[in-house]
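Researcher: Next entry in the queue.
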Amino acid sequence: MSGICIQSIVVGLLVPLGAWAVPVAQSLRISVMVLDQAEVPDRILGAAQERAGVILGKAGIELEWTDCRRPPIPSICTKVAEPDRLFLTIVTEDDRRVFADEVLGRSVPGGGSGRGVYARVFYGHIQARANQEGVDPAQLLGLAVAHELGHLLLGPDAHSAEGIMRANWSRHDMETGARGQLRFTDRQAPLIRADVQSRIRERERPPN
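Model: Structure for this entry, 208 residues:
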């Protein structure tokens, strides 16, 4: 696909992370359609969505979740993605020839003037890594979701030296993330808000 690249998050060796407080005057809302093909238990999925919501919320973005996994399926789930309506698919795993066990998810950020709207996370990989590191799988799932949504909102070159968008996480990062201390950086937060504002304007723009 021309102009589009796949981003992934790999759990590896990292250094400790600090926390940021991002002052936000008003939250912006973006919708996330969730297609749970891995059949994640409700408790774990709910906690994961809460963790991801808190992380994006500290950047000034309110996430509106729509469950597309069980009937009656909301009609919006059958529509195509829009700039401010993202699609998140949860699968057990992806192609092992491409994505090793340590890879927790991937996304397709937009290229050029395009908008990234599709992301997926690998629940089987997340469960295995959570068991290995002794962390809550629900919290690790939420961190992975926030990371992949970050790729959609920040673009292809979204990895940072610290925060939720680091390419590699250590056990310490996962533990601090579960306590709400893994966030978007002060530089990333306003970029995310600007992107969401632009997406909303694009959706509201009348057709030619």
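Model: The chain has a mean pLDDT of 83.
Researcher: Noted, moving on.
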